[in-house]
Amino acid sequence: MAITTLNIPIERAEVSKIEQVDFDNLSFGSVFTDHMLVCDYKDGQWEPPKIIPYQAISLEPSAKIFHYGQSIFEGMKAYKDSEGQVWLFRPLDNFKRLNISANRMAIPELPEEYFMEGLKTLVKLDAQWIPQKEGSSLYVRPFVFASGKGFHASPADEYKFLICLAPSGSYFSGKVKVLIEEKYSRAANGGVGYAKAGGNYAGQFYPTQLAIRKGYNQVIWTDDHAHEFIEEAGAMNIFVRIGDTLITAPTSDRILDGITRKSVLDIARDEGIPVEVRKISVSEVVEAAKNGSLKEMFGAGTAAVISPIAGFGFKEVDYELPEIEDSYASRLKKRITDIQFNRSEDKFGWRYKV
Amino acid sequence: MAITTLNIPIERAEVSKIEQVDFDNLSFGSVFTDHMLVCDYKDGQWEPPKIIPYQAISLEPSAKIFHYGQSIFEGMKAYKDSEGQVWLFRPLDNFKRLNISANRMAIPELPEEYFMEGLKTLVKLDAQWIPQKEGSSLYVRPFVFASGKGFHASPADEYKFLICLAPSGSYFSGKVKVLIEEKYSRAANGGVGYAKAGGNYAGQFYPTQLAIRKGYNQVIWTDDHAHEFIEEAGAMNIFVRIGDTLITAPTSDRILDGITRKSVLDIARDEGIPVEVRKISVSEVVEAAKNGSLKEMFGAGTAAVISPIAGFGFKEVDYELPEIEDSYASRLKKRITDIQFNRSEDKFGWRYKV
């Protein structure tokens, strides 16, 4: 591990808000810790980050974030083990993906040291906010947006990088039902679907609302050309188990390269589960549901962890998935959360001590 | 015209900044007038708008605009005629389109009165900021963004609608050269390309930067499936003149329904110009450039007005367009700007007195 050379200045909050928080009844991402990291891009470079009390941001009305959606983010979690030690999960992968997103959105790349040391210093400072209740976690949200001024439709000359922390309950409550989309799309070939860019999420809200009104929780996106192949679910990548084989779509310029997704693939292979990374047609899934070979579907993502899917809708027909013993979803979820919470050996080297 | 029943409260700026502005050297959208309109959506409804001094906005770091790109906007211009009277151009069409965008981005629709009366009151108040120099104008930017808090990837519960005004010079300086895109895409079928949504613009920045480095000003987007057909240019719709026929692509869920675009179509028909609204293949344009039947290409948009295209690049080959007498671009630009500046009869009823 590199020696920490960066000393991040900390302005402490005068009073902590922690006593006001009901840690037994946390929703997802709606209360925030006492501090945040801020880092400004000005005059062609990122200035050193600092930690300040969590507070409002002041921006010009012409700041490009309001007009042209130039923003990217990451999602991570911080875990506390039974000894009180704090861990992150593959944070360098989040850092690398943030810069992949930055490139596609014409945002200047962040220096690794600012991200990693900023993250560690902030999480350490607010470590007492990490929830201890099973299923709860400290959600970590690094994000970058265009703060530079002007109505010209071109990249901003100033940006802000922040990290905020939110003690959170589960992303989904109850069983997850999904709708396989036939009309709307999330991403174009040659577009920005692989980037964790703000606009990718806003575009999903309306079709998702339509699905929610029909009784589903999420949309499973399909290709925009013929809605023939399953892509991802916006907040999570999708896995399908047909017979004993676990299948997920390959990443592409339309699909987010999920960190939970690739961890699930590695663990599944390690468990001896037959794994296929290939295009999954909707008709194959429907057929498998009809003939009984569709054993499981689940979503994988940082916020969603591993979320079993109880059923899906397609062309006005609902398909229920069976409840099975020894599901891949539970096995894989146990393996991954045991690594995250330092309850098991970390043979892949994913755990990162804060 | 409807009787104004809405009285918009005005808090005047103590000191005007107008003396500091060099009206002879305006760039596009980089200085702003003394006032702005603000209107908040809270508790399930839009509160009445008010006008306040142009000032910074304060937002929570978890405001959804920073994370999920939930934002829409419009672009308009205010014109002053030789008598000093102030005009807008088809503003109700901007209002209607704003709500079309709002629906797609899961943003609550704005009441017409708030938009129209707010717009008129603000433009009247800052009318002395309308530049008088030919080619300059007062650019009007209505926009709506998600100000509600929280990291859950779902629509916000609070929004802000603002109108800001920017005295502006031309959007393009000099000749416009465009690159026909072969790799990247702007919009998906079933996506948000037809909405004036922030994220649609950020996604264009990187490919446009690549094009600028090669010596072009803008990208002409093509379909994301095979890059076979010309769609639009992001900041403007595209018109092609082959022989004497003026051709533009039909609007779709991937293409913005431009107000300048549809005005150009109406004027062209009125001028007796043969007009076709149909798919335009890239190969047809390249073929026409090669055999000399490609007479003109131009972009049409509020910011760009009508911008003649001097040449285009495709597959590493540059095609120059001829300089022609009595170009459609100049005829149509004169007709449309004469209507906008109240220099001619307004047979279509497009002018709107402020």
UniProtKB/TrEMBL annotation, chains A, B:
GO molecular function terms listed in the Swiss-Prot or TrEMBL record: branched-chain-amino-acid transaminase activity
Record-listed N6-(pyridoxal phosphate)lysine modification sites: 196
Catalysed reaction equations from the record: L-leucine + 2-oxoglutarate = 4-methyl-2-oxopentanoate + L-glutamate; L-valine + 2-oxoglutarate = 3-methyl-2-oxobutanoate + L-glutamate; L-isoleucine + 2-oxoglutarate = (S)-3-methyl-2-oxopentanoate + L-glutamate
Pfam families xref list: Aminotran_4
Statement: the UniProt record of this protein carries the keyword Transmembrane helix: no
Pathway: Amino-acid biosynthesis; L-leucine biosynthesis; L-leucine from 3-methyl-2-oxobutanoate: step 4/4; Amino-acid biosynthesis; L-isoleucine biosynthesis; L-isoleucine from 2-oxobutanoate: step 4/4; Amino-acid biosynthesis; L-valine biosynthesis; L-valine from pyruvate: step 4/4
GO biological process entries: amino acid biosynthetic process; branched-chain amino acid biosynthetic process
InterPro entries: Aminotrans_IV, Aminotrans_IV_CS, Aminotransferase-like, B_amino_transII, BCAT-like_C, BCAT-like_N, BCAT_family
Cofactor(s) named in the record: pyridoxal 5'-phosphate
Keywords: Amino-acid biosynthesis, Aminotransferase, Branched-chain amino acid biosynthesis, Pyridoxal phosphate, Transferase
Keyword Oxidoreductase applies: no
EC number from the UniProt entry: 2.6.1.42
Family the entry assigns: Belongs to the class-IV pyridoxal-phosphate-dependent aminotransferase family.
Function: Acts on leucine, isoleucine and valine.
Protein name: Branched-chain-amino-acid aminotransferase
Species of the source: Pelagihabitans pacificus
